[in-house]
Amino acid sequence: MVESTNFITTTTSTTTIKHEHVEDDTNHSDSPSSSSTPNGSATTPPTTTLTLFSSTTTKQQEMEELNNTKELLSKHTAMTNNMILTKSCQPTLVVSLRNFMCTIWASICFFSLWIPAYFCSVLSFKICRWFGLDSNRAFTSQFMRVSSRLAVKLNPFWNIKYLELENAPKKNTNDGRLIFICNHQSNMDPIAINSVFDWNAKWVAKDSIFNVPFGGYMMHHCGDIPLTFATEQIEDTNTLKQSAKNCLQVCKEWLEQNCPVFIFPEGRRSITQNVLEFKKGAFILAKQTKSFIVPMAIHGTGDIWPVHQSLASPGKAVVVMGSPIDPSKYNDLDDLVRDAREHVIQLHDRAKEEWRKIRIKQQAAAVN
């Protein structure tokens, strides 16, 4: 028993030091693999030690390969980052230049058309007021609407597409009691919508917009309604109570004259371009005046003129008009607000899908 144990120990030591001879020894008939203890139990073969040694060697090789892979990945990442930084410098300059050119072109178009349109609207407003004509200011509004529409059409950097669903209200000079609602992404929204929107509607807008030279001045003559917010923070959708009360009263007067009103029920622009929660003012107004609500949606203007960006960008936008909603079918105001918002979200998805199609076509045309 002792001799056999010593033999095993010696063999194991020999295998550890000179493992290259183990394979030859294991082929002999008197190898330790055939030895046994006096009680007949088999001894552990030297190949067990060889297996352990090979396993250790394999782990070391795997660790070395892993370290080499990490080094290669780090080098590749560094090279990729350098390439991105090198390539991003030039496009950034090009994009900034394009945005600057787009803004300059738009400014020239708008002001070159707004200035004569402003004086025409002033003259029209005073003449109609003296003779008691144009009570809903439809004729006076045309100077503002047409000049803005032409400014967008003449801008080669912008592409505005308009879609109407089958049951959307048709354009009519006798517009009727309609309240148009739409999601709000950008200051570009009224400009883009107006370029494809022929209805003589009165727009509810932030009071500071009425101070824009010529364009804002004409909004007074058109009969648009200013609304004052509590703060200038884009996240704050609260309005001054008295301003909101006056706004609803003026909207009510216009609707009673069968003149439509256009409202952004979110209150403010959406930074994420997702449809925000709706304020209830437009829907209370619809209930009181028995006016139909016409849902609309726009997508793309958030990229043309993003929030917190002073320069406009080249781009495309899609405007979609849906079917009117009858508020008399709703007993609960919250249900009306929720359903109207769902309609706008669905239309926004449709506008987004159409916007993507246009973009894919333009990219394919650019490649060809």
Classify the helix fraction into a percent range.
40-55%
Low-confidence segments, ≥5 residues, pLDDT <50? 1-44, 46-54, 82-90
Number of separate strands: 7
> Roughly how many Å apart are the termini?
87 Å
**Number of helical segments with 4 or more residues:** 10
Order of helices and strands: HHHHEEHEHEHEHEHEH
Gyration radius from CA atoms, angstroms = 38 Å
Instruction: Report strand order across the widest sheet.
Output: 1-7-6-2-5-3-4
- Biggest sheet details: 7 strands, mixed
**Silhouette:** globular
Q: Which structural class should the secondary elements be placed in?
A: alpha/beta
Strand proportion: 5-15%
Q: How would you sum up this structure, described in words?
A:
A seven-stranded mixed β-sheet has the order 1-7-6-2-5-3-4, sandwiched between helices. By secondary structure, it is α/β, with parallel strands linked by helices. Helix 3 packs antiparallel against helix 4, helix 4 packs antiparallel against helix 6 and helix 7 (241-256) runs parallel beside helix 8 (281-289). Helices cover 54% and strands 10% of the residues. The longest helix has 85 residues, at 47-131. Residues 1-48 are annotated as: Disordered. GO terms for molecular function: 1-acylglycerol-3-phosphate O-acyltransferase activity.
Q: Which key phrases capture this entry?
A:
single chain; 368 residues; alpha/beta; 54% helix; 10% strand
